Amino acid sequence: METHLADWIAHTSQGEEAKAILQRCVHCGFCTATCPTYQVLGDELDGPRGRIYLMKQMLEGGETGPETMLHLDRCLTCRSCETTCPSGVEYGRLLDIGRHAAETRIRRPVGQRLMRGLLREGLTSPLLGPAVKLGRALRPLLPGAIQSKIPLTRPRGELPTRAHARRVLLLAGCVQPAMLPGIDGATQRVLDRLGISSMVAAGSGCCGAIRQHLADPDGAKEQARMNVDAWWPMVASGEVEAIVVNASGCTVMVKDYAHLLQDDVEYAPRAQRITELVKDPIELLEPLTDEIRKKVLAKSNTRVAYHAPCTQQHGLRIRGTVERLLVALGAQSLAVSDSHLCCGSAGTYSLLQPALSTTLRDRKLEALQAESPSVILSANVGCIAHLAGAAKVPVMHWLEWLDERLALEAEDA
Ligand code: SF4
Ligand code: SF4
């Protein structure tokens, strides 16, 4: 698409990047068919091609208003459109630029500004943990809609104390340790049984995704720098072989640090090294499949429906790998229709767009539960908590499932 950017963005690095992306789009519309919001709403402006048009219009200095904001807000950032696009349009990067531009040029109503500010600060605050505990204690007294947002906890459990030659870092995170601490406990135990020590560096915290997706790129960069500083001594000394991030939404974000901090002369080289070291847990465990199989009860023929988070399948481009491991361990991995579509969780989307989010969740659960699984597994805390709010069967991280299998084997040994 021919693009002539407005003066206010034309000669900036964001402008150059947006222009290059816009020029790759040939406007074919293939992406529209795989866009969840287009499928629900049927409006061209609620599909990727329509949103690309709106962003182009804004970046070229054309008419921009609340309607632009509305359609950009309804985007899940699932990046299903990127997977479909035959021209390699990096829609996710364009959306980050477009959202930031919209935020600076279009004034939101005061209620929206308050809500978004509350989410930005609240979800990344150390007070989130105590707030979730209080919510859990009051859960029976709360209305059903709020109850479904507070998942029942699985305790973190005992953490391993053995030291191994292989060592990795774990992301400290923000929402996950507060909402579902069992995931981090399970991750550490699974790695320990496979001869890998894992540790959380003091001073590391949220990956920055919440701020990035709420159009606060400066806040996201600040959080990225904090993590780089916290991890660097162990990375520089070669003590750790990888940084394992067990929530795929955060994995995508940390893998993007090189891009996020590319203009920061002081941090760019270190951010590049961090990006190279980040791994989704399946990337670390897949090569150990035979070893895991020897430790796990092969007779456990669990009927599993795996929900591949968008951040894993479209962001990290990891597809089918977790399912293959589950099958290798004796599980029956059930077919899930429209597995490329988002479950509607999408970070803070379920709180900001509740109606669309609930429709997508219900459609996803229908697909996941069609073959009567005994458990639904996934790889991202947001999807797990969102689906668990209405699922008929337990929903957990695949590492929690694996932790249980390894524990059963240890008891039998
Ligand atoms: S983003 Fe890709 S698939 Fe969508 S209209 Fe543009 S070129 Fe076609
Ligand atoms: S990121 Fe997802 S919701 Fe947004 S336009 Fe692309 S496919 Fe549609």
How would you sum up this structure, described in words?
The protein is 54% helix and 7% strand. The chain is α/β, with parallel strands linked by helices and 413 residues long. The strands form 2 sheets. Strands 2-1-3-4 form a 4-stranded parallel sheet. Strand 7, helix 24 (381-388) and strand 8 form a beta-alpha-beta unit. Helix 14 packs across helix 17. The structure holds iron/sulfur cluster (2 copies).
Task: Provide a quick synopsis of the model.
The chain has 25 helices and 8 strands.
Q: Helical stretch count?
A: 25
Arrangement of strands in the largest sheet:
2-1-3-4
Structural class: alpha/beta
CATH architecture of the largest domain: 3-Layer(aba) Sandwich
Bound compounds, please? iron/sulfur cluster
Question: Mean of the pLDDT scores?
Answer: 92
Contiguous uncertain segments of 5+ residues: none
How many strands, what sense, and barrel or not for the largest sheet? 4 strands, parallel
Question: How are the secondary structure elements laid out?
Answer:
Elements: H1 7-10, H2 13-24, H3 36-41, H4 48-59, H5 66-73, H6 80-84, H7 91-105, H8 110-122, H9 128-137, H10 144-147, E1 166-170, H11 175-179, H12 182-193, E2 196-200, H13 209-213, H14 217-236, E3 242-244, H15 248-255, H16 257-260, H17 268-277, E4 278-279, H18 281-285, H19 289-295, E5 303-306, H20 310-315, H21 321-328, E6 332-333, H22 349-352, H23 354-369, E7 375-378, H24 381-388, E8 395-397, H25 398-412
Parallel strand pairs: 1-2, 1-3, 3-4, 5-6, 5-7, 7-8
